[in-house]
Amino acid sequence: MSPMKAARSIVAGRIAVSAERRVGSFLALAREDLAAAKILHKTFPRPAAFHLSQAAEKMIKAVLTTEGIIFGSGHHQLDRLVALLPQNHVWRAELTVLEKHTSAATATRYPLPSGAIPVTPDPAQIETDIRELEALLPEVTDWCRQS
Question: Engineered SS bond to 51: which of 33, 39, 58, 70, CB 3.0-4.6 Å?
Fold first, then answer.
């Protein structure tokens, strides 16, 4: 029996929340972040990169929640989140690739220590990343629903 079915709820603060509902919300929000990145990437690549990072984080958190792995609310480093999965987990290798999006959560959104605006992400790379996440999200969604 999967952890999702074995433990029907997790505690978030003081409120018991259905794990299935939480997973569904992570995936719905990941879809929204991915849609925002698609809309923004040509005109505003920095915010697009941020939304890709957010979509990746939410996909990882959906898998962790499906597996019953507690990660806490302050975890935003994608490599640390993926490291919570067992070494032989079916999603570990594919989710490890998403670690490259961690820096976009802050590196493209705030002035550099010098006060300069950060370098604009490469639009071609953003488009590649969008396609990568567009392909991965339905697979993660299907797996979470079947687990």
Answer: 33
How many other CB atoms are found less than 10 A from the CB of residue 85?
19
Q: Give dist(CA 39, CA 77) in Å, integer.
A: 25
pLDDT at res. 14: 44
> What CA–CA distance (Å, rounded) separates 27 from 85?
18
**CA 62 – CA 30 distance, rounded (Å):** 9
Cβ atoms of 140 and 85 closer than 8 Å: no
Least Cα distance to 141 among 65, 76, 84 occurs for 65
Q: Whole-angstrom Cα distance, residue 11 to residue 78?
A: 22
- Whether 75 shows a pLDDT value over 90: the answer reads no
